[in-house]
């Protein structure tokens, strides 16, 4: 039946400015069920207290509208809410109102308070059993994490990230858990990862970056077969990478950096054909470059720096045709750098510094995408600059601590070069090719044997 009442108002992304007057006709719309003011600019104004008069509201979205100050306690009058989104850096919500929302709003399915300063202890009991999506990231939550959220029967997304005062250990996970995404990154949650983590069979995102976890990763991680993003970086995990990770064939992101993993990097990657990002840097891995990595034809970012890998790079690294970043710096890799590495068609950053490479092909093919190249602190010598002369789109080149020669008579041009590091290279002559470089802003030729006057470059 048509009543003539306004029940929905969507003013999101409407370039609204200024403040909402307390006597605005907006608050006369007592039948309003949906109000969306997201992505506007109410800079320096607070959320009006009269928002509490809209008792029939079921959906309220004030995200990223630059409200400031305290969120009015009258918001606790909106007990019919199904969805509450207040993404707001600069807003504050008192603890009592926060508890009212989680205890008395029994129909609530979505609550997103990202950036709101709650400064409250994490709730022990939650009555809103309908909750499906909870985002309390960067809300200054504190205290000890409890089972409260993990017992919610309908919960699919839980984000508690960015609350560094949130402590405790991860509770044992109930087998009936329905979680799809769990993000507790940048918190103080610690202890060992419980074996029950493997019961989260529906999980497709697990982010525990920069927490305080220790011990080994349980083999049960292989049960999370729907996983797409798995990030355990910057913790204190030890032991080996469990081989069961090979079962996570839908992974697009695997982050294990900055832990204390040891042993060889297991050849477990041939099943992970959807992987785009692989971070294994800053661990204690030994042995050779893991051969099955080259089968990951969708890989875009590969970082294995700061380990103790040795041996030569495989020639068939050319299979990584979509690679944009390759960082193998600070290892003990040796031999000749295959020319195929430089020829990867989408590669923008190649970092091989602080290894034991002894040579590369005399002349490389043109690569229009390679911008950052680090080859310092290897055992390279001779006509390196001439060998690299076809890499004409370089903006950063680091050949420090190499015994290189520069032939004055041969034309070398790096027209877009911005950073050039040639310290400790036994240079006897100033690199005259720099006369053709108009974009340079950082030049390091310290600790060489250059004599005479510095030529005018411009």
From TrEMBL:
Example GO biological process: defense response
Cell compartments where the protein resides: Cell membrane
Entry annotated with the keyword Signal: yes
Membrane-topology descriptor: Single-pass type I membrane protein
Residue spans crossing the bilayer: none
SUPFAM superfamilies the UniProt entry points to: RNI-like
Cross-referenced Pfam families: LRR_1, LRR_8, LRR_At5g56370
Source organism, top-level taxon: Eukaryota
Cellular component terms (Gene Ontology): plasma membrane
InterPro entries linked: Leu-rich_rpt, Leu-rich_rpt_typical-subtyp, LRR_dom_sf, LRR_FXL15/At3g58940/PEG3-like, RLP23-like
SMART domains to which the protein is assigned, alphabetical: LRR_TYP
All copies of domain F-box/LRR-repeat protein 15/At3g58940/PEG3-like LRR, residue ranges: 28-154
Record key words, sorted: Cell membrane, Glycoprotein, Leucine-rich repeat, Membrane, Repeat, Signal, Transmembrane, Transmembrane helix
Family, as annotated: Belongs to the RLP family.
Protein name from the UniProt record: F-box/LRR-repeat protein 15/At3g58940/PEG3-like LRR domain-containing protein
Lineage, broadest ranks: Eukaryota, Viridiplantae, Streptophyta, Embryophyta, Tracheophyta
